[in-house]
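for the recovery benchmark. tokens below, seq after
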């Protein structure tokens, strides 16, 4: 155990020491330089971390060191790949206005600020208002009766569901962390938060929550959408705020936590460029975003 610990300690020490030159003319070691300062944008550092993680993997399999020490060492190494230290978005909607500081742009549907709660949308409410606005008295009663009969006979509504889409355009690095406080007020809803590229805000990663089913991570490209990972079932319809945290490291590893519980951990390198903003949407349900923050490198 001692020789292995010495090797690991030496590797870490070499990575942290200031540049130096050996006095021995025939030394096998050359002057050390900070890999994060290379013009490759941290690629040397990432390669070093990958090698270190492989050594830790081998040590775990061989039980060559204390598991707690190895986990601490892995956390230290991987911490260099998740350097979120720049806040690019922080909105609690406390000013009662989502059109400025920061500016959100509604692409479809409707949003409003629920005082004391946050950014809200409610598709069912909008649909009811549309129905009540075009019918009154006995006509409205007939519409409601028709809806009940359709449900009783199993007839499906052939009209396309409405959608709410709102975006804020702010540069987000490829490695990021998004955190939001979300409450859900009606069953059978779905909510999506994501990062996008391009003016149309269609391409990028999206995290989809569906009532009772859990969360799914999607990659949306020019040729369509694909599911990257799916969580276990999850239900948030208790009208309470829940914290969703979505992180992406420089190596493409993404972790999604809900209320501190890990729901998804996966790696996807489908996008390597920065993103142009953050997108929120839903096609059913009633959701309130109390606060949303995003950090980049």
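predicted aa per position
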């Amino acid at each position: 155990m001692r020789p292995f610990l010495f090797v690991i300690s030496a590797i870490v020490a070499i990575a942290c020491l200031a540049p130096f030159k050996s006095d021995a003319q025939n030394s096998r070691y050359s002057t050390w330089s900070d890999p994060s300062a290379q013009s490759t944008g941290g690629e040397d550092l990432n390669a070093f971390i990958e090698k270190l993680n492989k050594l830790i993997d081998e040590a775990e399999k061989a039980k060559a060191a204390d598991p707690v020490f190895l986990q601490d060492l892995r956390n230290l190494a991987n911490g260099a790949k998740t350097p979120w230290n720049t806040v690019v978005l922080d909105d609690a909607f406390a000013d009662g206005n989502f059109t400025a500081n920061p500016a959100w742009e509604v692409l479809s549907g409707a949003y409003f600020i629920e005082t004391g709660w946050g950014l809200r949308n409610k598709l069912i409410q909008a649909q009811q208002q549309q129905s009540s606005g075009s019918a009154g008295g006995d006509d409205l009663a007939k519409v409601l009766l028709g809806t009940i009969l359709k449900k009783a006979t199993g007839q499906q509504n052939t009209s396309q569901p409405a959608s709410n889409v709102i975006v804020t355009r702010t540069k987000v690095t490829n490695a990021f962390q998004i955190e939001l406080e979300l409450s859900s007020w009606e069953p059978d809803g779905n909510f999506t938060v994501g990062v996008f590229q391009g003016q149309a805000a269609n391409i990028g990663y999206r995290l989809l929550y569906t009532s009772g089913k859990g969360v799914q991570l999607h990659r949306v490209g020019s040729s369509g959408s694909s599911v990257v990972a799916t969580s276990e079932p999850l239900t948030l319809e208790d009208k309470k705020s829940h914290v969703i945290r979505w992180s992406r490291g420089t190596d493409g590893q993404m972790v999604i936590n809900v209320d501190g519980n890990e729901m998804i951990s996966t790696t996807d390198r489908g996008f390597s460029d920065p993103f142009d903003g953050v997108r929120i949407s839903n096609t059913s349900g009633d959701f309130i975003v109390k606060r949303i923050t995003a950090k980049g490198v």
